[in-house]
Amino acid sequence: SGSYPGGLGGYVTGGFSVTPGQTLNIYVGGEGTVANGSYVPGGAGWNGGGNGQSNSSSNVVGGGGGASDVRIGGTALNDRIIVGGGGGGSTNNTNAYGGDGGGLIGQDGNANSFGTGGTQSAGGNYGGSLGQGGNADGTMTPWNGGGGGGYYGGGVSIAHGGGGGGSSYTDPLASNVVHTQGYNAGNGLVIISYSQGSGCAGCTDPAALNYDSLAL
Question: Could you tell me the CA-to-CA distances from 40 to 34, 55, 93, 135, 210 in Å, in that order?
Answer without folding.
Answer: 11, 8, 18, 11, 47
